[in-house]
Each structure stands twice: as structure tokens, then as C-alpha cells.
Known about the structure:
Helices cover 54% and strands 13% of the residues. It contains 13 helices and 8 strands. It has a 5-stranded parallel sheet, with helices on both faces. It has a 3-stranded antiparallel sheet with strand order 1-3-2.
Amino acid sequence: MAVRYPIRAVAKATGLSLDTLRAWERRYKVVVPERSDRGRQYGVEDVDRLRLLARLVEKGHAIGTVAALSNQELENLLAPQSSEESQDPPPSRDLILPVLAAIERFDPASAADELGRLGASLSPRDLVYQVAIPLMREVGIRWHQGTLAIAQEHLISQMLGNLLGTVARLIRPSSPSARMIFATPAGELHEFGILASAMLTSMAGIEPIYLGPDLPSHEIAEAASRSGARVILLGITVIQESTAGEVRALAAAMPEPAELWLGGARAGELDLSDLGRKTVLLEDLPALEGECRRWRYGSW
Ligand code: B12
């Protein structure tokens, strides 16, 4: 079944307001979504096209002049002039500084307001790459320097977790083609990698079933059986005595034909050679996005 997204999810994924989306469709027929009793239903290709248009308009092109171009022509217009520009823009510290300042002065309400503002104005992908990752990195540095207390780290972890969770729910596709379980093994508390992963896969039309951190293998396997998930994705940031055993037990207990995907700073240290399962080791988050594209254009 083709993946379909409701208009709110498309607004979130493209950064366009509901009014702009409706106006562009009415005036310029930029995309023609299907209609159902749940309202407009957009395909993945509609979302891709709207993202291209949104980026061009942000760069100063008038929608009236680009609306009729093919996707290839839109991509050509966006093509970087130099190879340096072809990378994602480096995260701007300006975005996260107000959040950090509020946390430093123990002002959770302002920090939550700032994060909420960023969540509302950025695309989910930018929220991951431009806010969540740099923010937690900076928190880590300050925590190690002793300028941020553990309580402040917990505060920001909690807020960021809530924000990413809310956005992941908002952009959940209305008719996903597959389900994926997100968890960390028992003893692993670092959860931002799997939260970020859940957001990125949601944008590829996969329904995330987010179980969260620190789960025994039999619970994860049971959830996969009952939900019919095609992939179990585990985040591994620290290696503990139990980690390899938990992964092994999960591989033995999980249902056929589900795949086991692993990512995170220490995942590469596990021996995955004889798990008797299809396993995918993800180098980083862009690699996960690549695997999701394999899913999107492949034959799952
Ligand atoms: C927040 C944090 C915590 C929080 C976690 C809260 C939460 N809800 O997640 C708490 C306080 C619980 C915690 C506890 C501990 N932590 Co800690 N923690 C961090 C911190 C500050 C940020 C980690 C983070 O979330 N970053 C944001 C994520 C998105 O980025 P990332 O982890 O760098 O991951 C990148 C990639 O690896 C990849 N990725 C990550 N996960 C995944 C998953 C998939 C599927 C994919 C595809 C990619 C991917 O994407 C990210 C972007 O590139 C880091 C320091 C730092 N600056 O990184 C230490 C750090 C990760 N912690 C560390 C340690 C040692 C611990 C503790 C053992 C206690 C301690 N001595 O401090 C405990 C262990 C807890 C446990 N049993 O799991 C070490 C790990 C060293 C190591 N790799 O062995 C670090 C690096 C700090 C350090 N330099 O010592 N921690």
C-alpha cells in the first residue's frame, strides 16, 4: 500500500503552513493530493516536491515562477555552486544558545519555550541535525567541564525527549507501509540516538513503534511479534557486561523475517557475525536515512 500523509504531517515535514500548502495547491497546482474522508492525503513524492519548492522559495524564488518546473529542474536550481555547499549546513550555535542559557540559569520554563519555538519553526530533520545533536553534545561538554550539574543535564534531556517524541507523533504517516521498533537493550540509558532515528524514519513513511531505552530482549521480541514490525532498531552508546548477551538473546527470540538494525557510538564493537539473522550495522544517522530509502524504493 502506498504511504499517505495527512496535511498536518506535510506541513511539519516541509516547514510550510497549512494556509500556504492550500494556497499553493489552489493557485498553482504544485501537487494534487488524494482526498479521503480524513482530508487531503499526500504521497511521499508530493512531500519531496513540496520540500524542494519550500527550499527554493526560502532562497528567494517566487512560487509563481518555479511552481510549474519538474522536480529535476527544481533540483538543478538548488544545486550547489561549489562542493562545499553540497553538505548540510553546519549547525548554527545561535539556535541552541538561548536554550543553553536558560538551562544554565535554571529557568526550565524559558528553555521549554525556546525548544518549543524551534520545534514549531524547523523541519523534523533540521530539529534532529541542527538542534538535538548539537545541544546534547554541548550539554555533554559543559557537564564534563563541571559547568552544568547532573540535574540540569536531566532537565534538558527530559525536555528534548518530550519535544522529539511529540514531533515524531505529529509526523507519523497516516498509512505507513511498514513498522519499525525502536529500543535500547537492558542497561543502555542513552535514548537520543533512537529518538532521532524514529523521527527520521517516520519521514520516510515507516511507522515508528517507540519502546524507549533499557528494555530486556524478551520484551522487545514480544513487541515485534505482536506488532508485525519488519525491523528492530537498537541504539548502543555504551557497552556493558550484559550488552552482547542481550543482543544475542534478542536475535534468537525475535520473529522471522524481521531484520535487526544497530547503530550508536559503540554498536560497531559487537560481533554480529553469527547471530543467524539479517543484521544491518548503521554507521550514523545519514546511513539510517539511506537504509530507509532502500526500503522506500526497494521491495519490502
Ligand atoms: C545525555 C547523556 C547521558 C544521559 C542519557 C539521558 C538520555 N535520556 O538519553 C545519562 C545521564 C542517563 C547518561 C548516563 C551515562 N553515561 Co552518558 N552521556 C550523555 C551525553 C552528555 C549526551 C549523549 C547524547 O544523547 N547525545 C546526543 C546523541 C544524538 O548523539 P550521540 O550520542 O553522539 O550519537 C551520535 C551517533 O553515535 C549516532 N547515534 C547514536 N545513537 C544511534 C542509534 C542509531 C540507530 C543510529 C543509526 C545512530 C545513532 O547519532 C548521533 C549523531 O551523530 C554524552 C556525552 C556527549 N557529549 O555525547 C554522554 C556519554 C554518551 N555517556 C557516557 C557514559 C560513560 C555514561 C555513564 C556510564 C555514566 C557516566 N560515567 O557518565 C552512564 C551510563 C548509563 C547507561 N547505563 O547507559 C560516555 C560514553 C562513553 C562510551 N561510549 O563508552 C559519554 C560519551 C560521556 C563521556 N565522554 O564519557 N548519559
